[in-house]
Design brief:
With 307 residues, the chain is mainly alpha-helical. Helix content is 61%, strand content 0%.
Length: 307
């Protein structure tokens, strides 16, 4: 396969190459090649135990996107005008560009450090590949609308959260993949409706048929591995490698344990979010999409209340 720097390159090495690629289009393209190589077995090792590569504190990025604090971002509008539709798509493109980096960063930063199973690497490789495709498709759509990535200001709030959770995989999964990702699920249906009402069915179809269903699986990966880490921390000897399923129950005793485990995992989620995420979560929640991602109202509704 192409783009392999050498035949023994491990996945973490390849992930760092993506993070050190500044151009977002090249970042997406390279990530797609690496993901395909991993999924097809051309990259076989998740990492080399004898060599730990430094993971950049901040991925390489081009400087042609004007960055402003989130509080100073101009209103995007409701897709009623061409400029508003351009601004919304630009915002989505920027979000997806960071989502690429976040997916490769969680692989490079935490995979070996936390001795995660191979399935963890595969899940987030798939997420990274999806995010790269979303970026490429949305950037192309932005150009069709007469604009380009960099034409509007943007903020880097997603990476601010990544920096705040750079030492704690449980916190990273909770904040980036269960809070921010799920927030995207909450707002996307309204965004899709606004594009349709504005007469832009092409963008609405892209969001509805490609981005939205795949983002549910990304949130599901966060929930899945948050559960795994929480349970492994309680039973490190019994469950050092295997993925623990909260749904697979074969006896009454296991059912009791599973209910207790679920309660403990949710309590751990609440404590983690309250520690690492500022303020309450914002309703209304997309209960259907969140349920499809693997977590019900007991996970997030208590976090919508101010303490």
């Amino acid at each position: 396969m192409e783009e392999m720097s050498n035949q023994t390159e491990a996945l973490v090495e390849a992930a760092v190459r993506v993070l050190n690629t500044a151009d977002p289009f090249e970042k997406a393209r390279l990530g797609d090649v690496i993901a395909t190589n991993w999924l097809q077995g051309f990259i076989s090792l998740p990492y080399h135990p004898s060599s730990r590569l430094p993971v950049p504190d901040r991925p390489d990025r081009l400087t042609d996107v004007k960055l402003v604090p989130p509080s100073l971002m101009p209103k995007l509008g409701k897709a009623g005008s061409l400029q508003s539709r351009q601004a919304i798509v630009h915002s989505l493109v920027h979000t997806e560009s960071w989502a690429i980096d976040l997916s490769w960063d969680i692989i490079a930063r935490f995979g070996e450090q936390e001795a995660m199973p191979r399935e963890f690497f595969t899940d987030f490789v798939k997420v990274a590949q999806d995010e790269g495709r979303h970026f490429t498709l949305l950037a192309a759509r932005l150009e069709e609308l007469g604009s380009f990535y960099g034409a509007f200001p943007a903020h880097d709030g997603l990476w601010d959260s990544a920096i705040a959770t750079s030492k704690d995989l449980l916190a990273r999964l909770a904040v980036e993949h269960c809070v921010h990702e799920a927030r995207g699920l909450d707002v996307l249906p309204t965004t899709i409706t606004r594009f349709r009402n504005g007469g832009d069915n092409e963008t609405a179809d892209l969001l509805e048929r490609v981005v939205y269903p795949e983002e549910i699986t990304h949130c599901a990966a966060g929930v899945k591995w948050f559960k795994y880490l929480s349970l492994r921390s309680r039973n490190p000897i019994t469950y050092p490698w295997s993925l623990i399923s909260l749904e697979s129950v074969t006896s009454e005793r296991e059912t009791t344990t599973t209910v207790e485990d679920e309660r403990d995992v949710i309590q751990k989620f609440h404590a983690t979010v309250r520690t690492h995420f500022r303020g309450p979560l914002k309703p209304p929640f997309n209960e259907e999409a969140r349920k499809a991602a693997g977590f019900g109202p007991q996970w997030y509704e208590p976090l919508a209340l101010k303490e």
